[in-house]
Structure formats: structure tokens, C-alpha cells
Design a protein that fits this description.
The protein has 340 residues and is α/β, with parallel strands linked by helices. Helices cover 29% and strands 16% of the residues.
């Protein structure tokens, strides 16, 4: 038995065609829904990035009593439990928070891991001279903003993009280990997290008349931009989401080509959504956590039951991922895990 988790960051449920969106182009999410169970009542527990991943590892709520931070020595980590019980675990990610303070104890719980560089403000390429930054609606001061514009200078083609390289590494792992049993692969991309930077052929799928300033990175604050700017950044998000859909399709192609559906669990999930001007806010960090942020997409294929093309109304959260995967491999669930 094998399991693959494809995790996107900041994947908006309301903008996926299986959940009723009729204007964002996500045909491979439709394919996915035909082959899996689509969960209608999936919700984030703790957020944003690392609190959500602590839940993913530990099956335990993190929010309110603990902020952004590393796994602790006393934490029961799902990938580590798999590793200790003979299930090979591999993480491939361009989510750069894994490699910095506050996230640096997560990736070491896997047997092996691959780091893909260049997302957002990842301190990737060294450049003393300041990069050329266009006049923007939301100028972000500091190293994060500067690093992002340095990184963009190295992402000229689609094959340079971190998401492309993340999925290529995932496909390589799958092909190399097709004949092996008992492994768990986590393919995790930072996209479609802001900034909404992608290639022009994805943007061209969403033509619109825009004459404003460069705007593909909304701030975490109340909306002060014009309706034209709001519409534009939604299209920028949609273009990046369509790129995510494309690379999801490549994993589905491998599942089809090698008939992996018979013995391989597939989970496609996210940590949370994002307000794209709804409730007059940008971002994911304002209270209360509205449905657009907390209500998440989730798709699961379990070869043991073979249920596909169905919907479920069961209430599920990120804390349910760890016990679900441990159970799939026949391992006991620690008593401190709160999920099912």
C-alpha cells in the first residue's frame, strides 16, 4: 500500500469547479472529483502555515494555545511514526517556511526530503543591487518584498517555476518507486499562495481590460483598492490556480498510466483559504475566520473502499489527516491525537 498527498497552500474552495465555480478553469479538479470522495464540510483548525502543518503531523489542535512554531520533541509526528514502522516517507516542497526558524523541525521527520527554492520572499539568490520593482498598489517594505523581486528574475520560463520543479520531483519519486510497497509521498507546493506570479499563457486564459498599476500581491489589511484592481487580482489568483490544476493533472495521469488507483491512497488538500476582498478584507489573518478562509476543499481516494464520484457531508478537519493515514497503513493511532 502506498499513499500520496498533494497539498496546495491557500487553495480557495469557492474557486474550484467541483464546488460550483463556473469561471475558473480547473478541469483536472473535475477529473479528481470523479475519482475520489469530495468532502463538503472540511474545515481548517489552526492556521496559517506552520500551525496547520503541526496539525497535519500531530492530529492535534494547535490554535489558541500555541502560535507559529516548530514541532516539539514530545509531539507524535505522523510521518515519523510511519518512518519508525517501516513505511518510507518522502517530502517534496517549495514551501520555504519548512526551512526556516519556526518550521525547521518538520521536514526532518521524514526519511528524506527535497527543497525547491524560489517562492515568494525565499532568500534564494544573492543580489547586492536592488531589483527593479514596478510601482505597485501595495508596496511591501523589507526583505520579503525585495527577495521576491530578485527571485522573479530567475523564473523566466515555466520550467524555472518552483511549482513545476516540485511536481517534476514528485513524478520522479513515483516513477522510481512504482514497484515498491509501503511508502508515503507528500508533494506540497506553496502555490496558489500570494504573490500570484505565473506564466503569461495562464494569465491569457482570463482576459480583462486593466490599466492600473502592477498588482498581484494583496496585503493583509482592509480593501482600499478600486473595483478594477480587485477584479484584476482575482484574475491573477485564478491564473495561478489554473497552473495548480495543470500539475495536479500530471499526478492523475501517472495514477492512470500505472493503474495506481488499485493500491495507492490519494489525498488532495490545503491549509486554508483566502479573502479576495470578501468582507472588505484581503488575506487570511483577520477575525472572525470567515467561511472563505476556514471552509476548505478536500478530496480523498481510498483503494480499500473504492468510493469515487461521491460527496460526503461528514465534518472533517486537518487533525483528521494524521490518523487517517496511520490507519491506512495499519498503525495504531496515538491517544493524544484528536482527529479520526
Amino acid at each position: 500500500m502506498r499513499a500520496i498527498m498533494v497539498m496546495f497552500d491557500t487553495l480557495n474552495r469557492r474557486m474550484l469547479s467541483p464546488y460550483g465555480c463556473d469561471w475558473v478553469k480547473t478541469p483536472n479538479f473535475d477529473r479528481l472529483a470523479e475519482r475520489t470522495v469530495t468532502f463538503q464540510q472540511s474545515y481548517a483548525g489552526s492556521l496559517p502555515c506552520m500551525p496547520a502543518r503541526r496539525e497535519l503531523h500531530t492530529g492535534r489542535l494547535n490554535f489558541l494555545h500555541r502560535s507559529w512554531g516548530p514541532l516539539e520533541p514530545f509531539d507524535d509526528s505522523m510521518p515519523e511514526l510511519l518512518k519508525k514502522n517501516g513505511v518510507y516517507t518522502h517530502l517534496i516542497s517549495d514551501h520555504y517556511h519548512y526551512w526556516e526558524d519556526g518550521g525547521a523541525t518538520y521536514h526532518t521527520r521524514y526519511n528524506s526530503w527535497e527543497i525547491i527554492r524560489g517562492q515568494e520572499g525565499d532568500a534564494w539568490k544573492g543580489q547586492v543591487r536592488d531589483p527593479e520593482i514596478p510601482e505597485c498598489v501595495s508596496r511591501k517594505p523589507g526583505a520579503l518584498w525585495r527577495n521576491d523581486w530578485v527571485n522573479r528574475g530567475y523564473l523566466k520560463s515555466e520550467t524555472d517555476m518552483p511549482q513545476y520543479r516540485t511536481f517534476e520531483s514528485g513524478k520522479e519519486f513515483i516513477r522510481r518507486n512504482l514497484t515498491e510497497d509501503k511508502w508515503f509521498l507528500q508533494i506540497e507546493t506553496f502555490d496558489p499562495h500570494e504573490p500570484y506570479f505565473t506564466q503569461q499563457h495562464y494569465k491569457s486564459l482570463y482576459p480583462h481590460d486593466y490599466h492600473g498599476r502592477h498588482f498581484d500581491w494583496p496585503p493583509y489589511m482592509p480593501v482600499t483598492e478600486s473595483e478594477e484592481e480587485v477584479e484584476h487580482v482575482r484574475y491573477e489568483y485564478a491564473a495561478l490556480l489554473t497552473m495548480c490544476d495543470h500539475y495536479l493533472g500530471e499526478i492523475l495521469n501517472l495514477m492512470d498510466e500505472f493503474d495506481m488507483w488499485k493500491d495507492t491512497m490519494l489525498i488532495v488538500n490545503t491549509d486554508h483559504g483566502y479573502l479576495l476582498s470578501e468582507h472588505d478584507w484581503w488575506g487570511k489573518c483577520t477575525a472572525p475566520f470567515y467561511d472563505e478562509v476556514a471552509h476548505t476543499p478536500l478530496f480523498i481516494w481510498d483503494p480499500r473502499c473504492g468510493c469515487k464520484g461521491e460527496e460526503r457531508e461528514a465534518l472533517v478537519q486537518t487533525i483528521d489527516m494524521a490518523p487517517t493515514i496511520l490507519d491506512f497503513f495499519g498503525l495504531p493511532i496515538p491517544e493524544d491525537m484528536q482527529g479520526f
